[in-house]
Amino acid sequence: MSPDTPDPERPVDETGRPTPAGASEATPSSVEPPAVSPPGRPLPPAGFDPAAFPPSTAYQSSLELTAEQPRRRLRAAATVLGAVLALAVVGALLGLLWAALAPDTPVLKTAEGAIYADPQPEQPIAADGWFSLLGLAFGVLAALVLWFVLRRWRGPVGLLAAVLGALAAAPVAWQVGRRVGLATFDRLLRDAPPGQAFTKPADLRAGGVDWLLGVLPVPHGDLLLPAFGAAITYTLLAGWSRWPSLRPEPDPAAFSWASAGTPDPPAAPGPPAPGAAESPRG
After folding, report:
1. Cα–Cα distance measured from residue 194 to residue 115, given in angstroms and rounded to the nearest whole number
2. Which pTM value belongs to this model?
3. Tens of pLDDT, residues 91-115
4. 68 within some domain
5. Is 276 within a domain?
6. Burial letters 24-36, b for 16+ CB under 10 A, else e
């Protein structure tokens, strides 16, 4: 057999050279094309099984945190709304206390209406002063209560709840307090004969509510003092907190061998006592 007359039983490749003996024949349909990786993404090694490598714990935790964010925002909004409603209800009690402490102003009925019995009465100024003091104390107490009750939401959420709650409680306290005895005053103003003296219930002269665009109430004057007291107190509590996260953190000293469920390490043997007999040496 010569190179010019190849063995007819030996397959010949496309280049005209004979295939070595023992090599398997490969048809074009059985040859797999080389794998090409997408641009910018490395090609996985041969035999890689994605099912054998589940996502890491850190990756799963990040996914859970991403899914938890909308629900956490909803819970924070519900917490703020609940705190605002609760403080607004307590504001009614503040109004009753203000009406009980603030003095009534003596007035005199005339043909034109009621006038002050004293040309320069001090009772309206005292009513403003009592509301200012009670409002500041209310804001301080509200911030303290929310600081300890909403321990999980300490921070911007707690501050927002305290300020908005105190801001909502002030107008409620004003309206409740000024209406105590107002019906009696209106009846006497309408039916009392000229010259009769009676009293006017407490009201604010240095505070009130303005309506922005006729829809949004904007308090001013004395009605801002409860929110001011709440903001200052909550900020001071956050500034003087011993925890960076504003929430109680576990004490590292509390974790011991016993609390971790690990047996105590064996104690090192102490030095031999003076005069103790030495063990025999071999």
Report:
1. 11
2. 0.64
3. 999 999 999 999 999 999 888 888 8
4. no
5. no
6. eeeeeeeeeeeee
